[in-house]
Amino acid sequence: MTISLPSFHSGEPVALASVPCLPVRQFRAEIISAVHAGSTLTALFGAPAENSEIHLFGVLADSISSSLSALSAKVNEAYPSLTVECTQAHWFEREIAEQWNIEPQGHPWLKPIRFHPPYRLSGAARTPLSGATEFFRLDGDEVHEVAVGPVHAGVIEPGHFRFQCHGERVLHLEISLGYQHRGVEAALAGGPNKRAIHLIETLSGDSSIGHATAYCEAVEGLSGTAVPPRALVLRGIALELERIANHTGDLGALAGDVGYLPTAAYCGRIRGDFLNLTAAICGSRFGRGMLRPGGVLSDVDANLAGELSRRLDKALKDVEDATRLMWDAPSVQARFEDTGAINAATCKALGLVGPAARASGVERDVRQDAPSGIFRFAQIPISKWNTGDVFARAWVRWLEIQRSAVFVREQLASLPQGPTRIAVSPMAPAYLVVSLTEGWRGEIAHVAITDDSGRFARYKVIDPSFRNWMGLAIAMRDQQISDFPLCNKSFNLSYCGHDL
Amino acid sequence: MASLLLTRLRQGKRTLPFPDAEPNLPDRFRGLPVIDQSRCRVGCKACVDACPTEAIASDGSLQIDLGRCLFCPECVSACPEKAIELSHEHRLAASTRTDLLLKPGQTLKLADRLAGEIRRVLGRSLKLRQVSAGGCNGCEADVNVLNTVVFDLGRFGIQFVASPRHADGLLITGPVTRNMYLALEKTYAAVPHPKIVIAVGACAISGGPFSDHPEVLNGAGNVVPIDLFIAGCPPHPITILDGLLRLTGRIEGSAAVGKSS
After folding, report:
1. ipTM metric
2. I need a labelling partner for A51 at 20 to 30 A (CA). Which of A361, A434, A439, B119 fits?
3. Which residues 117-176 of chain B have a CB within 8 Å of chain A?
């Protein structure tokens, strides 16, 4: 670090004027040196500036203190790319190029990630046809290419996967997404309006609570709203129930992908039992309509708390029973172990998050690193493993289910008194806030920047899937193509969360 | 082996008795909106203004479009007279888009079964290809869950298949993004005749929270003809199952009126 950057925490507003605006070469050098020193690139994105310039923002998370810092630079048509020296910037820079019609010069693989016309129409902007692009290709008499999607075999979102294979062996996988692009970020700009929270809740529909938490904390930070403790606890309970339900579903689906049907059948059912706990709190299995800036719309009285606790215990016992079969089955373990392994160094280089990173021994969890809400007062121990394979990603999920259940049970037994929602003041003009939440797939990062009238000048969403799709591509190298469904499920990433 | 059998015993039989018995929905379930217009203040448009998807319109009398409705609590919270209630009524499937437009007091005309020749061909064995075209994975998840032991879709002769060429129809979720338009069109063309299309969720019916975004086509009806509309955001799995069973004639009759919660 050659200059001192403002240091702040998740949810803490920062005046835009205090974010240094550097010459782009220095901006680039600062980010690269911080990442080489161990920092994580939390966000790198563009926002519109005056004179049709683009204001690039970088957000870094310090490796020791986990405190955040931000820096910026103004660019116009092009700037020197960071990616060759900072792999974490790879996907971010492709996004910047696509959204703002800017060329990160020297980017090694500059292609669209979502296939939409740029937000800033200058030069030869055109609407690309989704998926119509050059793919990385291997040559050789015995090499063949397998193309899958966008419409897949299951009840699942669309995406395109291009495998370069030698026999059964996958040498390279390239993932091309964008089919789910609904224009969420563009629609959030100028807000918040009455649709905003609904766009957030459906941003990645199985992570409604995770994204709504990040959004509410961003708005509350910018408006200086102190959310009542009871609401914070209820949000925490909903977030962990979302994690438990999805992890349970994933364990069942992993069993299903190796043809082990007992665990698949039981967990498919038990996932619903957990979703129904969320529905008992707020009426929706996905937690829709529960969180709003200022608090929550649903309260839990003593009777309901007791009932939730009892049902949680019962469902948890059922998961333990159902998954024990799978952990004890050599035929399952033989498929899980050593399949799709990635090591900690790769995870760090790519900036992977969530259970995928923790399964490789990377200690990264927003609930510990940048806790907000109830997680400032009630810690959940980090769950990790060290083999980085399908087994590890499954096992970390099981550890997290148990630890989240302990948390939910404790919180239900000690709900603080008081209101569940307070009024939200207008947001401060010309401020920036970074809001982090540990969703069940990993770190959800929202960055909101307000304009001079206190509206969103830019609302940037980084779903954990945005970071982790590249992890899946790397995990597939040197694997059997028949193991792709298993590896894919072990990451279980969101298409719409990526495509926005 | 012994542990497998013991677990099997402990996990028990979990298939719901639906449709023979009424479903057990959560107390706070948000179903069919019911408006008591006699309570409305003159000139009040609080619910119209609060609705995020313009599902409620007022031209003197209120009208609610279940195809746009997210079943969110905004209108209920906004109403100063508590004239709107989201009832416990889970049956939300209709045969036409206009059936989803309701005036206060009007009952929802629930979906008809398939008619004539197509029912003879598909009524007892319906194979569907699911296409997510911008869906958020909410509808997809609650469609997928019908395959679990809880709902056991297979017992009704309905199954999701991998290829459109093996399918009798499409079940579409999502607002249909421009980027999925071509894939959806091709998938529809690949399904042999006679074929049906089912739109599940507010997005697939109207674009939902994404309606009028330049990136989406405001629902599957703008791309292919729809035979069954299932409202919700997402619809509860029981709501989806109810719609499918009405289509195949396993559940018949009666209009949804909105049971009070």
Report:
1. 0.94
2. A434
3. 129-145, 147-150, 160, 162-164, 174-175
